[in-house]
Each structure stands twice: as C-alpha cells, then as structure tokens.
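**User:** Here is a favour to ask of a fellow structure person. Please take any protein you like and set down a full record of it. No explanation is needed for now; the record alone will do.

**Assistant:**
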Amino acid sequence: MPAALKSIGFIVTPVLHPTRGDMKRILVEFEDSIEPGDIVLFYFAVHGTQWEDQNYLLPKHILKIDGVNLNRSAINAQNVLNTLSDRDPFVTIFLLDCCRNYHKRNTEIYARGDSSDSKSADFKPMDKTRSLIAFACASGTIVMDGQGQRNGLFTKHILEHTTTPNEDISLMLRDVRQKVVEASNLQQIPF
C-alpha cells in the first residue's frame, strides 16, 4: 500500500507493528503536516476492535480488551478522524482494514445477546463532515486475513484500483466491497 500511494502523489509514513507511543507520535506529526485544502488519506491495517459505540485502533502490545485498558492503551478512531478533519482538509479519506469485534461493558446487563452481538442498539457509526470512511468489515465482525497472501481481502482489492487514473473513489469502494463479499463467501462485508 505505501508504494501504491506514493506512486499517485501521497506522502506516506509507514509504521509497522506500532506501540501506542509510536501511534500517538506519528498521528501528531501527521496532523501537523496537514494544510487547509489537502486531500488527507488515513489508512490503518493492523488490529482494531469496537468497545460499545466506539472503534479503537490497537497497538501491537495490547493484551486485554476492556474500557479502561482501551482508553489507556489504544487509540480512539473517532478522535483521530475528528483531529484530522479539524485541520480543514478538502476531504479526509479514512480506511480501516482491521477487525471490529464488538465488546460490551457488562454482558450480564445485556441478557438478550452475547458480547459479540453486532446488532447492538448502542452502535454509533463514525462520521465527520467532508469525510469518506470505509471499514474492511461491518460492525461486530472480523476481517479475512488473506491466508498465504501479503494483504487481507480489503487491501488486496483496494490495491487493484489505487493507481487507476481518475477513478471515482465511491465507485471504487463499491467495487472493492463487492469483490470482498464474493471472495469471502459473504463472511466479510466491508462497511
């Protein structure tokens, strides 16, 4: 993905297996580099989870998923989107190729479903004006890793379109969604 993005003019700062400190440092540097009117693309392909109504980007070392640990050890994805968008870019493209396993604070309170119930009334989609947000999978689900492949299904199919000149990104993501759904036999549905 970094090579494909560089080839179409994006400035790329790849970070492999980041700690939370790495993630915070890179995000501050990224935020500071944004000028009003820029096209901003944030791409994250590591690990993620959904805790109640929030999506979190997970660093490599997080061991336990609970609300307290996530606030101390992970990065809230909506906060990242808000911060980047507050720099007044032309558009923010936010691509998350990570799982969205769903966790609730106290599963005993929610006796009607288990802790991975993806149809929770608590789910609140991410949004921000002048943003395009795409998840590799729907809320409460996991991504297919693309066994034996360099990339997961979502990234694999995005890469098929990334260097195509003048391709409408909304149409591209619609094609990517369809290809991921087909390749995963309905097991992964991008959102």
User: Anything to note?
Assistant: DSSP finds six helices and seven strands in the chain. The helical segments are 2-7, 20-33, 67-73, 77-85, 153-162, 169-183. The CA atoms of residues 56 and 71 lie 9 Å apart. Confidence is low (pLDDT under 50) at residues 107-123.
